[in-house]
């Protein structure tokens, strides 16, 4: 069984365009990815990683999750500049990474940087934090750090421990709901 996602970089189609709905939670963001996703899954990939429509050189996000790369103590993720969904999980994971000593940068991340990263992971409502095991770009396949040593594993554990009440929520992220109030 795979310990992480296997992504295919789609250099032909784009998930979002400047001035479009890429930066908001909308069903219109899923239809542009369907064809690429079906093709990738039929070839054995978990998901598709899309590049920016403006230059075709920078990574943006996968079909339904944000992406991060790790090199040394620097965690980088593309900026939310209108084509990337500013996810709550993305924001929470960025904050947790800073808390444990990582420098988190929101900036353009090139495909070359992606291919040279030590670790890659995705965040989102459904995946929470999920390691990327491999990325394939054209005919180049790169394998990344996954498993117990991976930052993604630590961040997943930290976030889900807060979400499930295993550790105290010192951030004020959790909200008590009184089931008796109506």
UniProtKB/TrEMBL annotation:
Stored InterPro entries: Aminotrans_IV, Aminotrans_IV_CS, Aminotransferase-like, B_amino_transII, BCAT-like_C
Enzyme's top EC category: transferase
EC number: 2.6.1.42
GO molecular function annotation: branched-chain-amino-acid transaminase activity
Pfam families for the chain: Aminotran_4
Disordered as annotated region, ranges: 1-23
Family annotation (Gene3D superfamilies): D-amino Acid Aminotransferase, subunit A, domain 2 (3.20.10.10)
Reactions mediated catalytically: L-leucine + 2-oxoglutarate = 4-methyl-2-oxopentanoate + L-glutamate; L-isoleucine + 2-oxoglutarate = (S)-3-methyl-2-oxopentanoate + L-glutamate; L-valine + 2-oxoglutarate = 3-methyl-2-oxobutanoate + L-glutamate
Alphabetical GO biological process terms: amino acid biosynthetic process; branched-chain amino acid biosynthetic process
Needed cofactors: pyridoxal 5'-phosphate
Keywords: Amino-acid biosynthesis, Aminotransferase, Branched-chain amino acid biosynthesis, Pyridoxal phosphate, Transferase
Protein's UniProt keywords contain Transferase: yes
UniProt superkingdom: Eukaryota
Family according to the record: Belongs to the class-IV pyridoxal-phosphate-dependent aminotransferase family.
Protein name per Swiss-Prot or TrEMBL: Branched-chain-amino-acid aminotransferase
Gene: BnaAnng29280D
């Amino acid at each position: 069984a795979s310990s992480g996602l296997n992504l295919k970089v789609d250099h032909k189609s784009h998930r979002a365009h400047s001035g479009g709905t890429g930066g908001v939670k909308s069903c219109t963001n899923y239809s542009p990815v369907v064809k690429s996703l079906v093709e990738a899954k039929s070839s054995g990939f978990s998901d598709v990683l899309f590049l920016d429509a403006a230059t075709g050189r920078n990574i943006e996000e996968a079909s339904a999750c944000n992406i991060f790369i790790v090199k040394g103590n620097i965690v980088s993720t593309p900026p939310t500049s209108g084509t990337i969904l500013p996810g709550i999980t993305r924001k929470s994971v960025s904050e947790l990474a800073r808390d444990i000593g990582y420098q988190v940068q929101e900036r353009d991340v090139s495909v070359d940087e992606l291919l040279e990263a030590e670790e890659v992971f995705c965040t989102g409502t459904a995946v929470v934090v999920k390691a990327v095991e491999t990325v394939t770009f054209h005919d180049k396949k790169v394998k990344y750090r996954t498993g117990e040593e991976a930052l993604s594993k630590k961040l997943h554990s930290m976030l889900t421990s807060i979400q499930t009440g295993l550790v105290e929520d010192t951030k004020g992220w959790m909200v008590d709901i009184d089931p008796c109030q109506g």
